[in-house]
C-alpha cells in the first residue's frame, strides 16, 4: 500500500469512528421495516451507521492476516461489501430477534473469510500461524 492509500485509509477510519453505532433497537427495526418497503434512504442510513463495525472487523482481521499481503484497504472494502449485503437482507429477514450488529457481523466475517481464502488459494499458505 502506498503513502496515498495509507492516508486515505487513515482518514476513512477517522471519519467512520465518529459515527455512532449501534443504533437503538427501535430505530433498527424501523429502518428494517422501511428497507423491506424498498426505501433506499433507509438502506443508506443503516449502512452508514454501521461502517464503523465493518472497519472494526477489518482492522481485527488485518492484525491476524496483514502479514499475508492483504492490505487494510482491501479488508475494509470487503467488509463493506458484507455490510451492504447484510443491510439488504436485514429488511427481508423474518426473524429480527438479534440486533443488526450481530446480523451484520456474520456477513462481514463471511466476506473477510472469502478474501483471505482467495489469497491463500492464489499465493499458498506457507506462513501459517502457530497457536
A few lines on this structure:
With 131 residues, this protein is mainly alpha-helical.
What does this structure look like?
The chain is mostly helical and 131 residues long. The chain has helices spanning 3-16, 25-36, 40-49, 51-65, 72-92, 100-123. The radius of gyration is 16 Å and the shape is globular.
Topology:
Blueprint: H1 3-16, H2 25-36, H3 40-49, H4 51-65, H5 72-92, H6 100-123
Q: List how many beta strands DSSP finds.
A: 0
First-to-last CA distance:
28 Å
Give the H and E element order: HHHHHH
Mean pLDDT: 86
**Shape, per Cα inertia axes:** globular
Main features:
131 residues; mainly alpha; 73% helix
Amino acid at each position: 500500500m502506498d503513502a496515498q492509500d495509507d492516508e486515505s485509509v487513515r482518514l476513512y477510519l477517522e471519519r467512520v469512528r465518529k459515527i455512532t453505532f449501534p443504533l437503538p433497537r427501535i430505530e433498527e427495526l424501523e429502518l428494517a421495516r422501511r428497507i423491506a418497503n424498498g426505501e433506499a434512504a433507509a438502506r443508506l442510513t443503516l449502512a452508514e451507521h454501521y461502517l464503523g463495525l465493518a472497519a472494526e472487523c477489518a482492522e481485527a482481521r488485518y492484525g491476524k492476516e496483514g502479514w499475508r499481503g492483504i492490505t487494510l484497504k482491501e479488508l475494509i472494502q470487503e467488509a463493506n461489501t458484507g455490510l451492504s449485503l447484510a443491510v439488504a437482507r436485514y429488511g427481508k429477514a423474518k426473524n429480527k430477534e438479534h440486533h443488526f450488529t450481530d446480523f451484520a457481523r456474520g456477513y462481514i466475517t463471511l466476506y473477510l473469510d472469502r478474501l483471505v481464502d482467495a489469497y491463500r488459494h492464489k499465493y499458498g499458505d506457507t506462513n501459517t500461524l502457530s497457536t
